[in-house]
Structure formats: C-alpha cells, structure tokens
Recover the amino acids of this structure.
C-alpha cells in the first residue's frame, strides 16, 4: 500500500521525471557536448556524472534559498556566479585534500561550469520551488545525466577498447572499433540511445 | 527601494560573498595544493629514474637520490648512479598549458621517460597524452635530429612515434613543446657540462 502511495508524492514524481520523462540528455537534449567528450570510457563517465550531480544539487539549493531576492534582470548572471563559485571551490578542495581523485578527474571538473543542465535546472526549477524539492530535482537531473553517460560509455568502451573500467572483457582477438573512441562514435551511440529511450517513454516531438 | 538600486546592491553583495568564499577556499587550500604539486614533481622524477619510494619518505628519498643542477633558467634533476637527467617541459596545448617531466639517458639524447604533470586537453581525445600506455611509446626514442609525432602509417624512425588518434593538434603541440624545450635545455646542459656555468 505504501508503495502505491509513493507514486502520488511530489518528490517521487520529480525524481522519476528527472531520470526518465524529463531526462536532461534524452528529452531536453542538454549537456550533449560533454556527453560526447567523456563517454569513451566508463570511468570518465562516472567521474563527470558525479561531479555534475553535486554541482546541480549545490547550485539548485543556493538559487532556491535566494530565489525571492534575485532581481529578474540579473538572474542568469547570478546563476553563473553561483555555479562558478561551486565548481572552483570543488576543484580547489579536490586538489588540496584528494589529489588522486583530482588527477583522475583532470579537466572534467572545470568543464562542469559550461554544462547547460546546471543552469537549466536553476532557471526551470530551483528559482520557483522550495529548497527540498530543488534538491531532489538537482539529484534527479544529475542521476538522469549520469545514467545516459554510463549506458553510452559502456557500449563505446567495449567496442573501442574491448574493456570495461579498463578490465579486459572482449577476447584479445576482438577487432576494436577505433571510431567508437572518437566523436562520431559518440554521436552514433548517443543518437541510438536517445531514440530507444524516447520510444520507451513514448516521448515524441511534434512540429 | 528603486529596482535599479536594488539590483546594483544585490550584485555587489553577491560579488562580495562569492569572492569571500573563493578567497577563503584559497586560503585554506593554497599551501596544501603547493605541497601536493611539489610532491607530484618529486614522485614523477623518482619514478622516471626507477627509484623506489614510499609516500611518507618522498622528500627524504628525493634529497638522497637526486642531485639538482642549475644552469641559467634551467633546473636539472640528475641521478648520480646512472647520470640520467630530468627537466621540466611546458607549453601551450589545445585548451590549456601542458606541463611535464622529460627524462633522458646519460647521452642527453635518448628518452628514458616522459611524465605529464598537468594538461587540459579534450578528455578521451587529446587527454590521452597523459595516459601511461601512450607515454610508454616515447621510451627509447631519440630527441635528435628532431623528435617527431607522426600521423602517417609509415614505420617509425628512431626519433618518431605515432600521434594520438583523433587528436592531431594535441600531438603537434606536444611535439613542439618537447623540441623547443629540449633544444634550450640541451644548450644549458652543454654549457654547464663544458664550462661549469
């Protein structure tokens, strides 16, 4: 009974929509640039996914907290300043206290500033919703982004390198597909994945 | 309060708060980041020379096993047992600076190791420049007459390696960094070897 009731809770719907019906990559087609760049290996996809999820949650929390005092004309600048502050702080803390992780993430952390999903959630949700729902929305969008990145990267890494998380999976004799490590391979797999998910959730764009 | 005045006040307060946060984060982390970078440099040099170390004794091992020779603007890190020499290389990549350590054998010509300390190349493409599998292809190659990273399919000469697939510009930039810094470092090394300068 409790499970059935959960379906009617606002938090559950926000969470479900962020991962499926309003998935930032599949439905909103946001964050495509970074999705293409980092999905050639699963470890890159995990690092980018977690980093983006944290920044969306933190920036949504902040924007939601100050939503009633942001002047409309400078709201975009405000989002940008908040997002940049979080990303730079995260980068500094990682470099100071978690050097191996900072090395593994490399340029990914800095690239989060340019990820339009973060600003998209601030403008579409956090600026007009209370803190707790904004946090759930940030988490859901981040997880939706991470889910797509993971799926695409699994296919690309297997075909391009024959490995998963750098562990050899395919037979050594498997002829690797170099194109899957490159941007065109990302376009193919991401395009196919967007099509499959849209069919699954019955999302069709009308002209 | 007028909307314009309110907006200006808001922007100023935002600027002060976010700048304060960033200054605070920097004050808390700057020293540790510098120490981490020093340790990273020492680890890269020790590994390049095949010297064992533990994380707790990086500084002591480095001081015992590596001699530092300064010539002009260049700092050379010499292993007195093998006479292999390391020095820092740096320059512009496609998206940001690339910094690394080039280690040469005693002939100051054959590559013993290349390590990347910092790079901001495209993840998965130019970023391959920092991967150990790719850097292993540099070992044993010659810096003279000129080091070359090739994108053609012809067999590599002793001074050539293959370029990174899909990242021609990063390969070209890194080739230039290595050659430019090597030619300057070689002059400085020869000067100090022959004249003791």
């Amino acid at each position: 009974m409790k499970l059935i009731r959960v379906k009617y809770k606002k938090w559950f719907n926000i969470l479900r929509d962020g991962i499926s019906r309003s998935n930032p990559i599949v439905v909103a087609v946001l964050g495509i640039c970074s999705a293409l760049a980092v999905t050639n290996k699963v470890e890159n996809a995990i690092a980018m996914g977690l980093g983006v999820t944290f920044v969306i949650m933190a920036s949504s929390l902040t924007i939601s907290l100050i939503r009633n005092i942001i002047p409309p004309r400078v709201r975009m600048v405000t989002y940008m300043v908040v997002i940049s502050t979080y990303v730079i702080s995260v980068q500094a803390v990682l470099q100071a206290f978690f050097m191996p992780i900072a090395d593994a993430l490399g340029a990914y952390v800095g690239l989060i500033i340019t990820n339009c999903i973060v600003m998209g959630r601030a403008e579409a949700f956090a600026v007009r919703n209370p803190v707790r729902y904004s946090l759930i929305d940030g988490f859901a969008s981040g997880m939706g982004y991470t889910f797509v990145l993971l799926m695409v990267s699994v296919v690309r890494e297997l075909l391009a390198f024959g490995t998963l998380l750098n562990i050899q999976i395919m037979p050594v004799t498997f002829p690797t597909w170099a194109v899957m490590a490159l941007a065109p391979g990302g376009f193919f797999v991401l395009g196919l994945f967007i099509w499959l998910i849209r069919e699954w959730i019955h999302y069709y764009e009308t002209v | 309060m007028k909307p314009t005045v309110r907006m200006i006040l808001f922007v100023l307060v935002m600027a002060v708060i976010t700048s304060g946060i960033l200054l605070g984060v920097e004050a808390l982390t700057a020293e540790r980041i510098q120490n981490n970078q020093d340790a990273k440099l020492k680890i890269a040099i020790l590994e390049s020379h095949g010297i064992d170390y533990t994380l707790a004794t990086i500084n002591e091992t480095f001081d015992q096993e590596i001699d530092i020779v300064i010539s002009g603007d260049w700092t050379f890190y010499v292993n007195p047992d093998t006479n292999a020499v390391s020095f820092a290389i740096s320059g512009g990549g496609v998206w940001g600076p690339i910094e690394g350590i080039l280690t040469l054998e005693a002939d100051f010509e054959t590559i013993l190791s290349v390590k990347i300390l910092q790079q901001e190349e495209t993840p998965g493409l130019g970023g391959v420049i920092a991967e150990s599998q790719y850097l292993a292809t540099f070992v044993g190659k010659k810096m003279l007459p000129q080091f070359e990273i090739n994108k053609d399919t012809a067999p590599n000469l002793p001074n050539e390696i293959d370029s990174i697939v899909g990242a021609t510009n990063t390969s070209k930039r890194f080739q230039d960094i290595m050659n430019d810094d090597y030619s300057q470092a070689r002059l400085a090394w020869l000067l100090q070897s022959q004249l003791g300068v």
Notes: Chain B touches chain A at residues 3, 6-7, 10-11, 14-15, 18, 21-22, 25-26, 28-29, 32-33, 36, 40, 95-96, 119-125, 127, 130, 165-166 (CB under 8 Å). Chain B has four helices and seven strands.
